[in-house]
Amino acid sequence: MLTSQGKINPFALRLQTIKAIENITQNPLICYVSKTSNVPRGIPVSIDEEDIIGFSDLIAKTSSEKIDVFLISNGGSPEAAERIIKLLRKKYNYIRFLLAGNAYSAATMMCFAADEIIMHCQGTLGPIDPQIGGIPAHAILESFEAVQKRLKDEGPASLTAYMPLIAKYDLHLLNLCQKAQQLSIELATQYLRQYMKKDEESIKNITDFFMNHETHKSHGRSIDRESAKEKGLNITFSEDIHKSGDEPENFNELLLSLFNQYQFFFSISSFFKLYENSGGINWGKNISPQQIQIPLQLPNNPQFPIPKP
Questions:
Q1: What Cα–Cα distance (Å) separates residue 96 from each residue in 30, 41, 45, 70, 243?
Q2: φ and ψ at residue 185, rounded to 5 degrees
Q3: Which of 114, 86, 127, 94 is nearest to 27 (CA)?
Q4: What are phi and psi of 262, to 5 degrees?
Q5: Fewer CB within 10 Å: N-end or C-end of the chain?
Q6: Residues 235, 5: Cα–Cα separation, whole Å
Q7: Cα–Cα distance measured from residue 127 to residue 187, given in angstroms and rounded to the nearest whole number
Q8: DSSP secondary structure, the chain, as one string
Q9: What is 3-126+222-286's CATH topology?
Q10: Model's pTM, two decimal places?
Q11: Where exactly are the structural domains of the chain?
Q12: pLDDT string in tens for the chain (309-residue length)
């Protein structure tokens, strides 16, 4: 039933679309989607360790050695993303990520751990240069390097002019930035070598491009499928996927439809993150406060009497 009391049932429609996609691909499909725009401050839409529970639910009853993952996310913790990839790779020999929207930052790194990335024309990856408190680690390191060069060229007398900049950051921040960059490169290199089967030259080309803050100039800048494929990622265009006998655009239209359905649902509900598959998993997180009713008068238990005022 797609309607309930004369209204469209969003989940029933999404379930129908998920099953239609599975019918074409012959692979189980799991969906991990987060709200990516108009997100109120403080809402935890990022990839985090709590997502391990969601992914564990999604894959618990799948028996195939292959899995498709419909992914929408602006990114989050690379450490959490690493745990999710380990969880998936323990169970599946072949993983594809299906993208029809944002898969930025840590979500891009997750895609590097796929055998194949299937992208709709509006799907997008993003830079993987790490952020420290919302500031690019590259920019922090570059600022310190610029100060060091100025001090070397101009002498200690110029130190006063740069004290306000230096005072903004603790010295250990330099180490954090360096380690964050190293982690991004390490994970990307490992995934591309182990799962996408890239040679060392291809790995360097890909990581240099996706890590290059000077090239992208913004951590939120999109990288389209043509650019990603040109750099060497295993990208397949969604219009090229179809079941024998089906029209080629069928899969493409279904992928876009599923994306639009999630965007619509986020716009009419308080949910900001969802975990869904066709096997009965359908839950998520929302910003509605949980109301707990506290009784005005507790029952008097003889063992624990209520003290008299």
A1: 11, 32, 22, 9, 16
A2: -65, -40
A3: 94
A4: -65, -40
A5: C
A6: 43
A7: 14
A8: --EETTEE-HHHHHHHHHHHHHHHH-S-EEEEEE--SSPPTT---SB-TTHHHHHHHHHTT---SEEEEEEEB--B-HHHHHHHHHHHHHH-SEEEEEESSEE-THHHHHHHTSSEEEE-TT-EE-----EETTEEHHHHHHHHHHHHHHHHHH-GGGHHHHHHHHHTS-THHHHHHHHHHHHHHHHHHHHHHHTS---HHHHHHHHHHHH-HHHH-STT--B-HHHHHHHT--EEEGGG---TTS-THHHHHHHHHHHHHHHHHHHHSSEEEEEEETTS-EEEEE-PPPP----SS---BTTBPPPP-
A9: 2-enoyl-CoA Hydratase; Chain A, domain 1 (3.90.226)
A10: 0.84
A11: 3-126+222-286
A12: 344 445 678 899 999 999 999 999 999 999 999 999 999 989 999 999 999 999 999 999 888 999 999 999 999 999 999 999 999 999 999 999 999 999 999 999 999 999 999 999 999 999 998 877 777 777 777 767 766 677 677 777 666 666 666 666 666 778 888 898 999 999 999 999 999 999 999 999 999 999 988 888 888 899 999 999 999 999 999 999 877 665 556 999 999 999 999 999 999 999 999 999 999 999 999 987 544 454 545 455 555 454 554
